[in-house]
Amino acid sequence: MREIDCLIQDIQRLQYDDIDEMYKKCLRLKEIALEQGDDYTLCLASNYMIDYYYSCKTQQETVKLANEVLAMNIEKGYPDLLMQVYNLYAIAICNNDYSLATGYYLKGLKIAEELNDYLMIAKFNCNLGDVFVHLERPDLAEPYFLKSFQQLQNFSCDSIEYKGIRFVLCYLMITYCEKGELQKAVSLMKDNQFIFENQKDDPLNQLWIALKAVICYEYDQKDLALEYIDSLLNHNIHGFRANEVIDLIYHMLLKITFEIKDKERILRIYHLLEKNDFGKTGIRFQIEMLEMRIQYCQIFQIDDKLPDLYAQYYCLMQQNKKENTDFCLNSVLYKIELFKEKEEKKDIAKLAQLDELTRIYNRRYFHYKYSEVKNKCHLLGVIIFDLDHFKQHNDQLGHLNGDMILRDFAKTLQQDNENIIGCRFGGDEFICICIDCDEKAIISFIEKVYSSFETLDHQGITISCGYYNTFNQCLSKEVLIDNADYYLYFVKKNGKNGYYGYSIQ
After folding, report:
1. What pTM value is reported for the model?
2. Could you give the count of Cα atoms lying within 13 Å of 464 in the half-sphere of its Cβ?
3. Which of 197, 301, 448, 503 makes an SS bond possible with 439, Cβ 3.0 to 4.6 Å?
């Protein structure tokens, strides 16, 4: 098996088990992709790196990488990878802007459905449900989690992809608990307990236990709920996305322990939360910790500490507002720079389509434009102009004078008509592509060219012209040009300085 294939398999497996080792594999995969000029593999490696940055780097570093990777995926346009990066981008960057996140989830979901990718359909539905959970609308979240659960049934129990079903089940449990539908939660737990067996060290298994504690507490089985809480407090939670799961678990446990005013367990949970760095993304976690301290002081009536805590809370909220603005600003500035780069690339591409001497479109652009409009119009034609006696004039008066004549003639083709586009075809020959023009419009254009050129008074230089215009599906580009050429040379043989041609209409 190729090294690239082995690395991709390792990355997909390690994503759930060892995200640090996954990142090392991503760096090696990216290195090989750059060496081999393999854009697909480069996008793939970069996508997984967003996941690592979200878990282990600062928000600012994550924003920068995610913007770069999103731009790269949009430019390269591999549907499966673009779908993947929409999901990662929404999770990593838009986590607090649910409207923006929803937009990316829906974009990704559309691609996933087109590709019939069960796993990504499940992920997007789960994440859309998560949006409604955070917006405190479990009724709207439930259908998305059920759709996600249904999609994951397409995988076998021992596949890597099936691991995602445990996260969806946990979210469904949270939704039922929030809605007060405890019987549904209990039934779901009984029917799916086997999925969490032999997964003791997995963070999602610990989340499942936390949900058992919540259900027991709601059913007034306080002692059993506390047993579950103690088992969690004595267990080290680590693994894939452990920070997120820890946040969910300990907040569930705090809700119970605050209600029963269990001072000892509250402090233990509080210290365990403090030990967790939450991916170094920081300030939101600090605000949550202050909120817990304030709640703790209120419950246990420690009034003397409250003024200082409120002051700290106010400062952090101001700082959070500034940081969010800064992150948003950095993202906006990056996008502006990206836009400028794209515009510069467009300008470079446009320059490549212009004739260097006359500054009108060149032969390359004529072929490009023909391909672009070939199947979009009803009528398609060409006009060919040739300058009579140009070679003799050029030889006698010099190339500088000849260049001036070519530039002057090119200007006569730049009329206010979007349907007739002039190009220099080579030497003293010019060609126009006519899009949905009848014969009257073509002749009007030709006569304006003749009239404009006559006013320039280039003595001895006249124009011969041939045109051919027909239904767009009738003839190939080459035959259209040959037919226009035929009429051009008919004019040349019959005294020059005129035009002749044919149009179907």
Report:
1. 0.59
2. 21
3. 503
